[in-house]
Amino acid sequence: MNKIAVVFWTGTGNTELMANEVAAGAREAGAEVSVFNTSAFKVESANEFDKFALGCPAMGAEELEDSEFQPMYDQLKKQISGKKVVLFGSYGWGGGEWMNPWKEDAANAGLVLADDPLAIEGSPDDDGNAKCRELGKVLALS
Q: What is the pTM assigned to this prediction?
């Protein structure tokens, strides 16, 4: 079975919009998809999923959100080492630089990146939505 968990944190709603589009693309490619806000996702349920799409916007000094997402991610990455993942999120400044250390950390943790991370400035427009859907499709078909 091709079960995907899309797990995200959002502050302004932009990353949630991206998460929903990633999920839609994965569903279009035939995957069974569950979407979770970080606070609703239970790390203990990680083994129920084959693949993960993880979304977090840039925060502070170009870093992951540190009160909910980072602690969840730190636990989750140990559980899903060897599984395919994609990373995505929005940013308002810094050109999406926060994605580079996140990508490196994921690879170092043994996560298998199914595609390059997707960073979108602000709210996704039609082109951004299409990129999110494509990211979901790539994950589902990988």
A: 0.96
